[in-house]
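SEVERITY: medium
COMPONENT: batch folding queue
REPORTER: lab tech (J.R.)

DESCRIPTION
The queue accepted two submissions in a row. Attaching both inputs and their returned C-alpha cells so the on-call engineer can compare them side by side.

ATTACHMENT 1
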Amino acid sequence: MQKKLIGNLSKFAVPLKSKGRLFKEKKNDLRNDFQRDRDRIIHSTAFRRLKHKTQVFVNTSGDHFRTRITHSLEVSQIARTLSKYFNLNEDLSETLSLAHDLGHTPFGHAGEEALNYCMKDYGGFDHNIQTLRIITILENRYYEFKGLNLSIETLDGLIKHNGPIKDLSKFNKILGNNFFKKKINFNINSSLEAQIASISDDIAYNSHDLEDGLKSNLFNLDNLKNIPVLNKIILKHIKKLKKNSIDLVIRQIIRQIINDMVSDVIETTQKNIKLFKIKNLNDIYKTENKLVAFSEKMQKFDKKIKSFLKQKMYFHKDVHSKTNYGRKVIIKLFYQIKKNPKKYINIRKYGNTNIERIICDFIAGMTDRYAINLYNQIK
C-alpha cells in the first residue's frame, strides 16, 4: 500500500516519506506523512478558530470579508498550483499554507503588537513562533504526546518559511533551549515547498486585501491606476463596466492579478534554478539564495501594492479605530487576567511554564468575538 503513495516527484521535491517526527509513531497505510500532517492541522482547534479571527477587518465588520481561515485556504490553493507545476510535494506545501497563520492573535497585527508589548519582560510574542507553540505544545489531542507531532519537514518549513534562522534568541526565550532536539538545521535554506507557501501568502494578501478594500469602498479602481502591472489590467477590464456590474469586474481583475503573479513566480523560479545551478534537493538546502521569487518588475508591483494597502486600507481611519480598539482590549485582558489567572484559565492544561506565557497563550488563542465579550464582562 505504502509504495502506491510514493509517486515520481521532481528531484527538487521533499520526498513523500518523511525523516520522522519528534515522537515516534506507526506509519499509516492510507495516507502519506504529509497528508497526515495536513489533516491534523485541519482538525485542530486553532485552525477552526481562524474562522473568527481578523484578516484586516475586525470580525464584527461583515460576513463577506476575509478572515484568517479563508486567507489560509486561498494561500493553500495557490501553493498547490505552484507545487503541482514543479512536480513537488503538494501535500507539504498545502500543510505549510494551512498552518502558517495558526499563531495569529485576535485583531490581526494590532493584537500581535499589543501582546508583544505585554510580554516585553517575559520573552516577547511572535505569531510565527506562536504557531510552533500551538503545534508542539498547546494542541492536546493524543495520549502519547502534547501537540500534533508533525513531521520534521513540516516543522522545518514553518520555522524557516522566510529562510534560514541566524538568531535563535527569540526561539529560545519563547520555546526553550534546544526545543527541537537538534532535529532542525536552522542554518540551511528552506525547501521549495516552504518557499512556495511563503510567496503564495504574499500573492493571496496582495490580491484579496485589494478586493476587500475595493468592496468596502475604502478606495476605488481610479486610485489604483498609477500602480505598475495593475494599471494595464484595470484598463483592460474597465471597458467591461458598460455591460457588467462593478463587483464582477473587480473579481475578474483580482483573478488576473493572481494569474499574472503565479505565472511570474513560475518563470522567475525556473530562471533561478538554472542561474544557481540547482540539480537536486541538497543544492536547494545549500544555496543561500531565495529560489522561489518574483521578477524585478513584479517585486516593484509587490512593494507598491503593499505600500498602497498600508496607506489606504490598514491605516484608514475606520480600520485603524477598530484595530486600536483591539489593541486596547488585549492589553486590558492581559493585566486583568494576571490579577487572578485561575478565575479565567485552567492553568493545569498549559503545563510547566511561567504564568505570563500561559496568559499570553490563552489570549493569543482567542477569537475576536471571544476577546470582545470577555473584555465587556471585565471592564
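ATTACHMENT 2
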Amino acid sequence: MRKNLNLLAKTLYGFEPLLAKELQHLGAQEIKTGNRLVSFKGDLGFLYKANLALRTALKILMPIHRFTIANNSMLYQAIYRFPWEDYLDAGQTFVIDSVVTGPFFTHSLYASQKAKDAIVDRFRKQNGMRPSVDTHRPDLRIHLHIQDRQATLSLDSSGASLHKRGYRNATNIAPINEVLAAGLLLHSGWAGQSDFYDPMCGSGTFLIEAAMIAAQIPANINREEFAFERWKNWDPDLFETIHKGLLKRVIAPKIKIYGSDKAPSAVRKTQENIQQANLEDFVTVTRFDFFKTQKQSQGPLHLVTNPPYGERLTGDITELYQKIGDTLKKEYPDTAAWMITSNLDAMKAIGLRPSRKIKVFNGKLESRLLYFPMYAGTKKIHKLKHNE
C-alpha cells in the first residue's frame, strides 16, 4: 500500500471551492480549503493524477518540512539540518522560490539566497561536492513559504505553472489564462450539457477548455514535462498507468462547440491552437461579427466570452457593450450568456440586469463574471433568485 502524502494545490482567488470539488471527484482525502489554496492527501500516483487532471490548480506542492524561525540564523540552521540528500544528489541542480510575509522576513530573494547557502553548505561538508543552481530547468524546484515565524519547505511537483497546458502556441492581445478560463467555465456550470459558443474567441482558450471539459480530457494531457519527472522517486510505470487510466474516461461530446471572431488573425490563431490541442473534431471557428449573427442552435445554448475591457480598444467601449446587450436580447433566446469584464462602468451599458455577479481577478484586474439568462419566447431577461 502506497504512503499518503500531504499535498497542496495553489489556485486563483475565488476558485478554492471549484478546486476542492475537482479534488473530491478525483478521490483526494482530507480536503481543506484556504486562501488561494486547497490542501489534501493522496499517494504518489495521486500526485501524478492531480497534475494531469486538475483544471483550476496552478501548482501542486508537497510540503516536506515545517519549522519556526525568528531570524536569518534560525532559517539557515533549520534548512542546513534538513536531510536534503533524500531528495537531491550533489551532482544535480535545484532552485528555490520564496514567498515571505510578516515583520521578520521582508525580502523573498534574500530568503532564497539564505536557503540556497544552507543546502550547498550541507552537501559540501558531507562529501566536498555541491549541487548547482539552475533557474530554468532544475532537477528539484523547492518552494519556501514564510509567514511571520512559520516556515514551510515544499517540493514543487509541477514546475511551470499548470496554466501552461501545452496547446497554446499562438496568442492574441491579452489572452485569458487557461486556469482562469477553466474556472470561469466551471463557475458558469458548464459540463457539456448543451451547445457552446464564444462570439469573441480571441485565441480560443474558452473554446478549448470547454471542449476538454465536455470530452473529459485531462487538463494537462498536452504538457511536455512535469517537475516530478526529475525527482529521485520518479516512477514512470506508475505515471503511465495513471495517464492511461485518465484517457480511458475521455468521451466524444454529442454537442456543438463553436466560436467566432471578426478579426482574421484571431480566427487563424484559434484554429492553430485547436489543432495543437487535437480538438479539430470537436471545435469549429469561423470569421463572423457577433453583432451580425443569430443563434445557430435550436435548443439551449451556453455562451461564454471575454469582450474587450477598454484598455486596448480604439473606439467607444460603451457602444460596444450596448451592442452586446442588444444582440443577446434580439438574437439569442434560450441562452445562458456569461461574460467577464473589468470595466464595471461599461457593463451598465449592456442594458440587462445580471442574474449573478461573481468577483474574480483577470491578472491584477478586479473583474466580474456576469450571468445573463436569455429565455426562449421573450426578449426580456428574467430575474432569478441567486446570490450576487
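NOTES FROM REPORTER
The two ends are 46 Å apart (CA to CA).
No errors were logged for either attachment.
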